[in-house]
## 1
Amino acid sequence: MTASLSKDSTGEPTEAPLVEVKDLKVHFPITRGVIFDKVIGFVKAVDGVDLSIPRGKTYGLVGESGCGKSTLGRAILQLTPSTGGTVTFDGTPITSLGPGKLREMRRRMQMIFQDPLSSLDPRQNVESILVEGLAAHGIGANRDERRKRVAETLDAVGLPRWALSRYPHEFSGGQRQRIGIARALVLGPDLIVADEPVSALDVSIQAQVINLLEDLQDQLNLTYLVIAHDLAVVRHIADVVGVMYLGALVEEASSDDLYVQPLHPYTRALMSAVPVPDPDVEDQRERILLAGDLPSPANPPRGCRFHTRCPWAQPTKCVDERPVLRVITGTSDTHRVACHWAEDIQSGVLQPHDVRAELVKPASDGEISIPEVLDPTAFDPHF
Amino acid sequence: MFRFIVRRLLQVIPTLFGLSLLLFIWLHRLPGGPETAILGERGTPELRARIRHDMGLDEPIWVQYGKFMKRVLSGDLGTSISTKRPVTTEFLERFPGTIELTVVALIFAIGLGIPLGYLAARRRGSWIDSVTVGVGLLGICTPVFFLGYIYKQVFAVNLGWFPTTGRQDVTIDATRVTGFFVLDGILTREWDASIDAFMHLVLPALTLASIPLAVVMRITRASVLEVMQEDFVRTAESKGLTRKVIRGRHIMRNAMLPVATTIGLLTGSLLSGAVLTETVFAFSGVGSFIVEAIDRRDYPVLMGFIMLFALVYVLINLIVDVSYTFIDPRVRVR
Amino acid sequence: MALLEVSDLSVVFARKGERPVTAVDGVSFSVDAGEVVGLVGESGCGKSVTSLAIMRLLPPRGVRIGGKAEFDGMNLLELPQSAMRDIRGRDVAMIFQDPLSSLNPVVPIGIQVIEVLERHRGMKGEAARREAASLLDRVGIPDPNRRLKEYPHQLSGGMRQRALIAMAVACAPRLLIADEPTTALDVTIQAQILELLKELVRDSGTALLMITHDLGVVAGLCETINVLYAGRVVETAPRRVLFGEHRHPYTVGLLKSIPRLDSPRGERLIPITGSMRDVLPWPEGCAFTPRCFNVVDACVGEPPELRHTGAHAYRCVNPVAEKEVAAK
Amino acid sequence: MTLVGRKKERIERLGELAGAPEERGRSLWQEALRRVRRSPAALIGAGILLLFVLIALIGPFFVPYSPTDPIGINSGEVASGRGIIPGPSAEHWLGYDHQGRDEFSRMVVGARQTLWVGVVATIFGLAIGSLIGGVAGASFALGGKWGKRLDGFLMRVVDIFLALPSLLLAVTVAAILGPSLLTVMIAVGTISVPIFARLLRGSMLAQANSDYVLASTALGVKRNKIATSHLMPNSLAPVFVQGTLTLATAIIEAAALSFLGLGNPDSAAPEWGVMLADAQPYLDIRIGLALYPAFGIIVTALGFTLLGEAMREALDPKLRK
Amino acid sequence: GCAESDRADDSSSSSSDKTLVFGVAGDAKALDPALTSDGESFRVTRQIYETLVRPEEGGAKIVPGLADKFEPDSSGLKWTFTLKKGVKFQDGEAFNAAAVCYNFDRWYKSTGLMQNPDVTYYWQTIMGGYEKNESADLGQSLFKSCKAEGDDKAIIETTKVTSKFPSALALPSFSIASPKALQQYNANQVTGSADDIKYPPYAMEHPVGTGPFKFVKWDTANKTVTLERNDTYWGDKAKLKTLIFKTISDLNARKQALRNNEIQGYDLVAPADVAALKSEGFNVLTRPAFNVLYMAINQSGPAKAALSNVKVRQAIAHAINRDAIVKAKYPEGSTVATQFQPPGLDGYNDGVTKYEYSTDKAKALLAEAGVSNLTLKFWYPTEVTRPYMPDPKGIQELITADLQKAGITVQLTPAKWSPDYLNGVQANADHDIHLLGWTGDYGDAYNFLGTFFDHQTPEWGFTNQALFDAFAAADKEADAQKRFGMYKDLNKQIMDYLPGVPVAHGPPSLVVAKNVSGIKPSPLTDERFVNAEVK
Ligand SMILES: Nc1ncnc2c1ncn2[C@@H]1O[C@H](COP(=O)(O)OP(=O)(O)OP(=O)(O)O)[C@@H](O)[C@H]1O
Ligand SMILES: Nc1ncnc2c1ncn2[C@@H]1O[C@H](COP(=O)(O)OP(=O)(O)OP(=O)(O)O)[C@@H](O)[C@H]1O
Ligand SMILES: [Mg+2]
Ligand SMILES: [Mg+2]
């Protein structure tokens, strides 16, 4: 890798975390009204998240679909305006930045998307895709300089030069994702938020992309926030893993700690649900099957949000008091969990019980609004 | 749902208001006024000036508009300059004819368009498909006067199956109840009147239906093709259901959704398409009346009718939207 | 005689003016009564086409199907459409990948279940409704009576897949084909669904053909596993053999390219290079050659035969040595 | 040769087999064009249009008679007022028209103006409609609260136009501008403005939530730039398809306007729609006077429609793989 | 389509049960002839009402109507109308001098909206004013008083002598209505405001006159007016039982309706269709051409400098091949117009200057006038046919071609007949040449010539005081024969001055089915259905 792209590759990561998130909230208003819209409620997609991502490290975020991972990722980049809380990026509180300043800041924080095809403009060729960001930030004095930079980036992500004149639809899934990564990299960012970077990819290709992300991090001292619903992927790639449930973190620990000693009942269930390609493991493992589905974030359960599905739920506390992330005795001090009964579950004092599945109304997916059909011949030649 | 309807209706108000202002200014800016139309070749400049003055047409436009709005808001749409009858009376008298015509045309368009569109989709690429495309195009590209002429020549003059003009045989002394002749005949049990009125509708409705028929056919075809690819049709097949159930419950019910919106849209265009059809068939409806009103610069009629047209158009689309929520349970109106 | 005996099945998509695509190319496998068989491979390898060919659900035009698919001695591929309609849903049922798009959005769940009962079990009215409710109950949908009246979009993803399963098992079919039934679902829900399928198979003796790209899913479920690549079976084995002593480099790739939850962190993944695009047409050799780490000259030229060693068979001229597998 | 070396060599060869990368990439449009070229319907459509354009371009130089000279009346052969309009003959292949002019020459020369009116009217409608729809769509998608309001306002205005009977719309536009060829084009174009506007807006809104727009925002690209270089280009496909289809109807609408006296003032200049309208009183005497131009219009419309439909299919994202 | 024919066949042999459906191009506006001025209303009211004097059947000459005799005194101001005896209104009221005077007083004493030119147009144009004028634009009324002398003598006094009186009394607007009905149905209560005029019930639903047919119903929803035989009619009773006027505005639609036997006749036959209809066996009834088409030359338009030169106007006249136009675009029996009034109407002058077709002469005259590069703004109406102008566009195209041959550039302006065209050529000056014409209202040349030329108008754009004075003199001449002589002079004078080019007199036609007889075409469109028979 060339110097122009790498930053600080020799320096040790400094102490202060690159990203600090404090009590971040993203609430989407639900509106209704006859003439003027009134807000009648909120989808609390992210509801009070604290986390920090150290420089040069990878923070992994897992959770079920709809728990607010993507929203959190976008809010950290301020692509979705936050309702409350702060995000500090390298000492700058970006939640209170004006649009112009924020735009400048974007050079240093980039994003990789889940679906490589839909995140690439089908009418732009790769060169144009890569140059767009450079142009927006006035990087590179002239065409040649930009080309050089683009070419270097292509090398870095392992794409051939001829790719430049090609269009996204001409590439395979893995290559497309490489284009997406190149687009993020070309600006030379410090932070990359990768929202499900591999889940849309073929099994065989996932490994290529994961390896690439790891290699790039090593070379460029990048900081990652990797979002995935696949615990195995997150555990593989991340230094620190945060488990999210209904808009909030329920557990946060280093990758190994989490695997060895999951403390939150949800983490345990999640872990036991991940299939392992090994008949012996599969035959022996004990499963914690969760009942029902993720409740709607528009109407989250009171108290502990997980209590409706928790096999260890207790009649007290769980129902009316929302647990906060805390360190419990006997574990590492980077291991935090939001459960009232974590100690008792850990020690085996509490045993799981059956849970009746509750009816969950899914968030609006599948709903559509009235389509607009316009037909050329819907007007008449009156004659 | 109720809120939705109220909201949509309230939204219509500014639209209608804007429309009325626009129309008013627009119409009054057109060269020539009702005075010329009233007097015809016999107009002298003096007479014209007198009529203009008497009618207040020489006042500033906003004063005229103010008067107009005042009257409209008090529930009076004014009197037709040319027929000297209240616009509302004219409307009530002529609209039923247009509605009958439009409804029958829609029935033709839907009744023929959907099966043909389905067939074309099912036999995509076959001669049936090509024929439907051709017929649709023919319907779209042939001017109304020509199509009407040919229908009349073939089905009336040559074959003698249908009458060519009017809404009802002049010698039938039918009782008028609602103004919908077919309905009136049924209500009063004057069956011959009802049947005769229907026979009078066939040719104009066929003519008027030519464009919607083509549109419905095409949309149905496209939509059926799309639905046939859907996973749930495969699921239905995998359940071993009979063809009939798959066609009706799974394919058509879904394929009808875009067709439904189109129909709403088409109703608007049918209303304006009725204009020429009514003239060609000497069919007494609002369409032909509007044409005359344009010629005569009959401002009250034009204002009133077009506003009512627009309102009807909006209402129909509202109805389509509301009915959408019944056809498609996924639709959430907001 | 196995319940389902697929032999030399081939499917060619040949549209006018386009190059013919051979999606399935001489696939053979069998499913015994009550057995759970897996069909594994990455996207585009022909899994779905295979299952659709067996069900006769491929479009009637532009498709050439060859070989045999004998169900209970009848060759499904030659059955008249009407007979096939009788078999579908009654003797052989199917579950699809995306539960939302696989359900008719404008028809209540209840009717979609009841229509199967009406068609194949001649049930009507209240009886059919009650049976439908009990079916929903059986697949673990809470408050089934209310759910009958609801539409697919009102159910969560997991519930939708359960409803689909309810429809599939409504007539206690002898064979259930599940085409990636959990791919669109979250892991926790996937676990629920897999558990449900296991239970159903166990309780009713239905045979299950499980199609997936996730070797993890088949590891705990299937007795026999077929690995498909570019339309051909490249390896077949009972599951312990397959996971323990697989010989085909592609199977190695599938296993090693995915992070395992239990593998130590930071262990480097071994990706399969290239993508499904880099496929050699089978007649010119092993289709996997362009992506294979274990290529020899013999890979190109002659297509490799399926080599049988007992229940284990693989299609490779240069298989991975058993010890090599262990080392990897 | 080492195993690795051999492998490399083989893979290179296999790469050739699997289709080596060509020199230049194909954009979606090129890709679509390729698909269009393969569709027989499109070929027929394109063939028809080519013929049509050819006739329009060079036909006027080869016609046997002046299309505006009332030769038949001067020679006394034609007396349309007395029901005498001679039909096809050796000298006049399609006979005379009601003004004693050579119908064949009029058909050939008429192609040009017919095409011209249709094209200009459609372009006008498309341009204005796209402008309104584009502004509305972009402000809704990217403009925040005020953007939504602007969009709402523009769409209300468009609604008004959509609710107006289009005849009235065209007539009033034409009456205000006064009769001229340009007026016809503008009036006909105006009818399709609301349709294009809604189409583009709808298409843009559909794009607005796509990831690549978000990606551009994340890159720090300015909103105007996103609108013009991403939202617009990606939303235009259906608008263009619509355009080809509108062309067909535009020709007919134009004829209708001429019929109402709002058309080309030089009424003797041949144009198919006008010819069709002029034939109306003579349907009994010589129906050919209506049939020839009607046939011309329908075949042309067929050409545009076939091509448009083929384009629509070619650009359909669902078929893009 | 067969419904009607069945019915017609079913009817018994007695012709008195027959129905005739006659297709007309437009709806009547109202059925009180005093309040209307349009031909379609008149067509209906002519069957219901009668006037004191009337045109002879099939002609324009004035003959007795409800008055057996009408004579002026020596001053020419006082007219005695001797009324027919034994006439009854359709409501049973007696027709007498009091009724006549009631009608005249009703018109004369109009107030309010009744004085609106839109309402009592003909009274206003013929009589000039009312008892109490409410507008300063109105003048003194020609009508002074009406006195009943006994039952059968009505004495009408006028304020001056004019060519219009009494021939204009033949206009349907001067129809005598039943006073009782007028009162009963509030005939004078025209309400609303000038821009919102509402007619009283009398005018819409209760017309009562003395004519051979009485009103039954006006079905606006089906666009028909139904009349029935008046069995108390004083003269020969109508042969038809029922007479229905059905509005069919589209020309082809009327034709097809006739072919389909939905109607048994219609008016405004397109000249082009005449031959075809005849060959199909229909009876085409051609009216004498009581009209003129002219191409007006405006002397205050854009090209006024050139056009005020009479040589240029002559050049234009020579440039146009009127023969070819008449042959190609007009029906059989049409003639080229040499002056602005039809032949056969007293005052016609065979000796006017004629301008034969000669492009060379035209060019020479233009050169003589020193005019080169003459560009003329030519207005023509679209989407209309008039009895005197069967195909305006076609005629325009021929004229244009002719003018171009003479080296004149033509700049065309098409416009919709109403109101754009009429407004453009009659109220504005932005036109050089245009096509227009006239169908006579009643049988006096003044109705043609005077209408065009007795004062300055924007249509012609010239001021010729001598000519205007000559008209005033002719109008005042009480002696008809003397007046006719003056008209002859006027025609000559006009054609020398050449304010425009008269083009054609085209006989309009109506058509009836083979089995219909007894209708006599009238130059004034005063066809009477009283003798009409369906066999
Ligand atoms: N713009 C929005 N307006 C309203 N609700 C939203 C919006 N975006 C997301 N949501 C809701 O917020 C919740 C969290 O969404 P988010 O996309 O962050 O979940 P996720 O964890 O990324 O899920 P997935 O794994 O499916 O991507 C969901 O219920 C979603 O419906
Ligand atoms: N209708 C079709 N027409 C042409 N080719 C098709 C058609 N359906 C499938 N194919 C091709 O057949 C091959 C196998 O497709 P198939 O759907 O069976 O893959 P799969 O293994 O099920 O993949 P996935 O995991 O993505 O579902 C693919 O290359 C595909 O492009
Ligand atoms: Mg997400
Ligand atoms: Mg598949």
Note: Residues A 69-70, 195 surround magnesium ion (ligand 3) (CB under 6 Å).
## 2
Amino acid sequence: MKPFRRTLAGRLLADPQAAIAMLIIAALVLAAVFADLVAPYDYSAMNLADRFARPSADYWLGTDNLGRDTFSRLLQGGRIALYVALTAVSVSALIGLALGMIAGYGPRWLDNVLLFSFDTLRAYPTIILALALAALLPRGLSTVIIVVVITSFSEYGRVVRTQTLSLKHAEFILAERAMGAGFGRIVFHHLLPNVLGPFFILAAMNLPVVITIEAGMSFLGIGVPPGTPSWGATLKDGFDHIRTTPWIIIAGGLPLILVTLGFTFLGEALRDQLDPKLRRGR
Amino acid sequence: MTDTLTIERLSVRYDTDKGPLEALRDVSMNVPAGQIVGVVGESGCGKSTLISALLHLLPENGRVSHGAIRLEGDNIVGAPPRRLRDLRGRDMSVVFQDPMTSLNPVLSIGRQMRDIQYRDGGSRTEKDRRSAEMLGRVGLPDPDGKLSFYPHELSGGMRQRVAIAMAAMMQPKLLIADEPTTALDATLEVQIIELLQELQRELGCTILFISHHLGVIAELCERVVVMYAGETVEEGPVADVFLNPAHPYTRKLIECDPGRLKQRAETLPAIAGSLPDLTDRPKGCIFRDRCDFATDACADRPDRYFVDDTHWAACHHTDEVRK
Amino acid sequence: MTQPILTLKDVVVEFPGLRGLKGLMAPPEQRHVQAVAGISLDVQPGETVAIVGESGSGKTTLARAINGLVPLAGGEVWFDGMPLHERPDWHAVRRRVAMMFQDPSGSLSPRKTVRDLVLEPFAIHGIKLDDPGAKAADLLATAGLGPDFLARYPHQLSGGQARRVGVARALALDPAMVLADEPTAGLDVSIQGEILNLLNRIKAQHGLTTVIITHNLNILRHVADRVAVMYLGRIVELGEVEQILSTPAHPYTRALMAANPEPDPTARHERITLKGETPALNARPSGCEFHPRCPVARPECAERAPLLGPTPGAGQVSCHFPIHKDEMNTA
Amino acid sequence: MLHYTLQRAALAVAIVFVAISALYMVMITLPGDPTSVLLGPRATPEIRAEFRAQMGLDDPVLMQLAQFWGRVLSGDLGTDYYRDRPVADAVMGALPHTVALVVGAIVWSATLGILLGAFSADNRNTWLDRVSGVLSVGFIAAPSFVVALYALLFFAVTLGWFPTIGAGEPGDLGSRLYHLALPSFAIGLAWVGYVARIVRASMLEALGENYIRTARAFGLPRRKVIYSYALRVAILPAVQVLGVGIGGMLSSAVFAEIVFSRPGIGSLIYDSVSGRNYPLVMGAMLVAIGFFVTCALVADLINAALDPRHRKLS
């Protein structure tokens, strides 16, 4: 057994940036899991007597135009953000991983076809495509996930392809072929383990991006169904009454910033640890 | 005869994760003016650290911990930045090993050669004229036209000629050549060695020639310094050192070169064992663990033992080695 | 005379030259360059043939073509009676033809332990071992490494140690032939000897046929029986090792030998400096492809390409005006 | 270089063609009945049939696609049925505002990002470097629409330093720039972070290269080595990233345009989506994707022009 401080988790905890990041992420996960227990109010309960209430002991982060408690809604929003991010990232990452390896290791013509489709998919600006598809698809989290998958799997595909391509001509792969190793053995035993590092880093870095997209789409009213307390929807409520309820904007933006910051920090720390080239010292 | 370069007990230390690493320890050598002096050693012997230390280009975690580097008598260790900049390129210049990466890929040859003449007066045309003249001298066809070329448009051999032209253009007191032929094919290696010999004759500059190739050193150099694990183990005239080595490592190294053997050998000589860990140098002689001559005396680090005025070795058993 | 174990007949390997728009517009002969341009060679069982050349000579490509890592564009390769140019069962062929690669640690899969690496051939060919650990230790021992290396990863090995792992692995399945690409590349002279001794010992023990690709002329005498000198994808000279070393007949071979100074300051070097550099594969000179660099070229060399023919000695050379032994002495 | 340019341009055209075609096919095949959307729920079956025939909605999908491209190539992007105006006019009227926004964001991110990145690399592993590293990551992490909202709330609504609404007076450059400052900053901030990270990383890589050692070994002044030799190489990936990043900026522009109530492609699409105004959505998508792909192409060509190694391809 390696001592704890030499394991990946140990090394990450020793990095203050990563430690803060993991703290934030832990808070998010806890809030998402225990949202119903922690929340002081039902996130959808309207209390018309307390509309536009400023932050106070009763309502820590004030209320909105319908008198709903902002804090409770934000807790619930974390759950939505986490759900969308994890689902969308795993789906698009797996598709990208498969296609990227096929492009990188497959025949040249297939590589050209896949690369062209990656390029084409990248040409759609995410939010604009989301708007276009919103006209066609029902409003809901599955639409958000579909949009994210469509616009982001090509990015994984591209990174995995580049990595695979550079490994394809590496001498150790040639050596495997020279020993008679077949396609499956080369791909799963020798390519995959060497591709996974950058792939996981990219996935970690993409979690906050997806959270932002979900919030953005909900802000535009094409994400979660009306009434669902996504962070983006909460921000939209705040924006609609910006002069009367500025606290909703301030409070609604903070968890979003904190969580994206947390995931980004973690992604960077992971990259520093997993990518020996970037590690300090030689 | 004056010495262009004298190195006295130079030690260089790197701070690493595993603690301090002494990459050079008590390195000493003399480079007489107007000569070609070879430095020979295998990987890990500290050749590249030595060059970085000479040019004061050690990485951030490295520093000279001890000793002196004298250029025409002046100690340049710890010299102020201004003096260092004057040293580099004017008093000392260098040709690096890999011609493919040692020239800037996004600047033309002419621009790079003009840039290094920044100290000299003269117009752009004048500088370009000088550059072209130098390129012609190192054997580039159509030197004027080559000024607008980018490095990737030239072959490896041609790039190395450009690098030599840059190094020689400033008429330095000391030209350092860091394995300038290692990345080249044998037939090109010959061309570059002849070019260096020619330049040395014409310009009369002093050359410190670093190589792992014993044959090239034997042919090109007058004196040779042998390095092992960050230490200088032997220094002397090439003929003496190669024909009558005084250090067991030198002797082994020469024996190992299969080009020396004129008969097919069933078993080729090799040096058993491996380099010591430089973060934890063994006490006593650095070569002790791999040495056939080692005795208890070797538990003490040997000092330089002079075989004659110009030839020394760091070994307690010099006499036996030379038998 | 015995049947050769490996026979090459006019082997040609092509690489794509110009691509894209330019490629479409270029004349067909420029769309491909020939890295190996018609090589014929017989290798007898138990023999060691060294293929010598500088970068761009096509020597590595030739080795890779023999065991199918790069496709043939023409010619025939016969190994032990099997036609390797007719879509053979490579899986089976590669079990008997082992290959050692140039980059000692780069040819080891970076995330596998040494134990996994030396057992890899058994895994690939589905061979069950009673005691894999013992087998791995055994193989390492043949290559001169102790069992403490079993748990290491490639990046924890020195160049010489990685090379030994490569040797252990090449021998795992008891191959009939080994293709060794630059077995001394990246090794210091003090280590080089050990690796060559190891190779020689194994060759003798197993009666291995070996093809060694190298640019290191110093080792030829000690490892090879015969030598083929390559230039621009063709063999320019072929012969017994001592004959090639002492009386090279091709001017290029001679320049190559002369370009390799001995570590002896008293030796008198007679240098033959070649003009210029090896031309690019898509700009092959006319006639004898060596003539622009040749110190003894005559006008007809630019017009007529020489064929590989017998030398005054027992070898073969492709030169209109090969050097004779007596010329050597007066030079 | 000419060959390279032609090849990249052909690829760009193909990408726009395929991207728009795919979207168009999805648009006309996926939803139930576009007539009910375009004509409203109260249209009679007769009117619908007439409309279908007129629009060619009963033709095979590929035929419709061909007709669509035929119209597009002749400059006709269709009609905006809500306001009864040509889509081309609406889109072309909105485009300059979005372009200005994106260009503004690029100006912010390129200048600040390169400065911050080069500064970080120059002072690597000092506390200055660490602070600027945390800042860059912070910039990257902050979602652009939250930045836009915060900027609006603090600098426009609370402090009143900047206008809250609109794109400024037509013809008055000063007023236009004044209105542009906050929204373009909101879009560009994340890219300041990206560019700074990339420039720092590639600077450090460049500083480790042999040719930098050569330059230093010849005694070139440190400033020259860093800012002229290393930065020149280090900027190349930043140009590439910004080129591709324009897609992201276009997405952010949607928010900036909505938050600051500016005209532009983003708000045009936003408004048309709620009304299911397909011709307008398609037109705006075409222009947005065309703009993005062109920018990426230009970035690619700039890169090739700055890096002589690239030109070898030609």
Note: Chain A has a mean pLDDT of 82.
